């Protein structure tokens, strides 16, 4: 009889303690908030890390600053007006990308080939504006080959942008790369900017491009 009474007395206390434990764990705001923060933090950190103004890209010790330019624009002279609009867009806030535009940034009196090779080597990525003028200009093809020789495995550094060119006329050297079609100028500019952002983010995480 005493053993049965002991069992009856111990059951409510054990059940009550377990219920209290479960209540405290479920109603604790700190535990729930910490769980939520642990779930949401990866996506938040990824979004922040992809933003070009974050410290991993623009900080003084970032690999971005190992090169003189962020982007080298390869284009035909007949497309200069469009290219100037693109450069103005890329150099604007908040990214403020450093662009090399040959007619603007080449040093007077220096050799054209030397200026081009230096710009290609000292840029993180290259935008190729492939237009009918680009295809008919041997100098543009030379620029393209220099850029491809600098990064033979492509790895996102060469960004082809196709405008008013049929697929059959697209350079064979670029056919293994995805290209941006400039159907609408504003959306195409935005896509180019986002691609450069990804290149810069990769630069910040990995060693500087070029294998140095």
From TrEMBL:
Region (Disordered): 1-62
Ranges annotated as biased composition (Basic residues): 1-11
Residues making up the signal peptide according to the UniProt record: none
GO molecular function per UniProt: Toll-like receptor 2 binding; Toll-like receptor 4 binding
Gene Ontology, cellular component aspect: cytoplasm; plasma membrane
Protein name, per record: TIRAP protein
PROSITE patterns to which the protein is assigned, alphabetical: TIR
Pfam families per the UniProt record, alphabetical: TIR_2 (PF13676)
InterPro entries linked: TIR_dom (IPR000157), Tol-interleuk_rcpt_adapt_Tirap (IPR017279), Toll_tir_struct_dom_sf (IPR035897)
UniProt gene name: Tirap
Positions with biased composition (Low complexity): 13-49
One Gene Ontology biological process: positive regulation of tumor necrosis factor production
Origin superkingdom: Eukaryota
Domain TIR, first and last residues per copy: 67-196
